[in-house]
Amino acid sequence: MRALQFGVLEEKTLGSRAVEAMLSHLSLSLICVLGLLNTHTQGVEHDTRLVTSGPLVHPHLIGCRSSELATFRCWWSSGTFSNLSEPGALSLFFQMKTITPSEWQECPEYTHFTQNECYFSREFTQIWKTYCVQLRSATLKHNITYDQQCFTVENIVYPDPPVGPELDAAEHQSFRVEL
What sequence ranges are listed for the domain Growth hormone/erythropoietin receptor ligand binding (predicted)? Predict the structure, then answer.
C-alpha cells in the first residue's frame, strides 16, 4: 500500500514540476512580450517615414550560439527601421543572473567582420549561469529596449559540423556503393 501511495505522490510531484516549468516558460514569454509592448506605450513615437515598405518589423534578437561551451555569440536584426540599421544604432547589453544579479553591461566585443554580432570571450562565459541579453537603442530622447532573451550557455551549444570528413572504403569491407 505504501509503495502505491509513494508512486501516486511521485507522479503528482512530476506532474506539478512539469506545470511549474510550463508556467515559468510562459511567464518569461509574457515578460518579453510585455517588454516589447512597453516600448510602444510609454509615449515613444516611431517615425513611420524611417520604416522601409512592407510590414513593420521591430528590432529583435536573432539568437545566441556557442560551439564549444567556452565562448558564445549573439546576433540581432534592426528589422524594418532603417534609422537603426547603421552600426552602433543598436546595442546589446547582458546580465548574469546569480543570487545577486550583476549589473547590466554592454557587449564586451562587437565583431568587425559580422554586422550586428556580439562576441563573449572565455572571460565573459560561464556555464550553468543564466544570462539575459537585451537589444537597446539610445536616442537623445529615449532609451528603448526592443527585445530580451535569457538562456544558459549549455542550452545554446550547437557544435560546428566536421570539416573535410573522409571515408576509407578499403578499411570498411562492408561498405559498397550500388548504382
Answer: 58-142
Distance, in Å, from the CA atom of 98 to the CA atom of 96, rounded to the nearest integer, reads 6
How much is the pTM? 0.61
Mean pLDDT by 10 residues, the chain (179 residues): 42 46 42 39 45 78 95 94 80 91 93 94 94 87 89 92 76 60
Reading the block at residue 19, the C-alpha cell is 506545470
Amino acid at 163: V
DSSP 25-79: HHHHHHHHHHHHHHHHHSSPPP-GGGBPSSS----EEEEEEBSSSS-EEEEEE-T
What Å distances lie between residue 100 and 4, 32, 74, 75, 103, CA to CA?
A: 42, 21, 24, 27, 9
Q: Are strands 105-106 and 72-77 parallel, antiparallel or unpaired?
A: unpaired
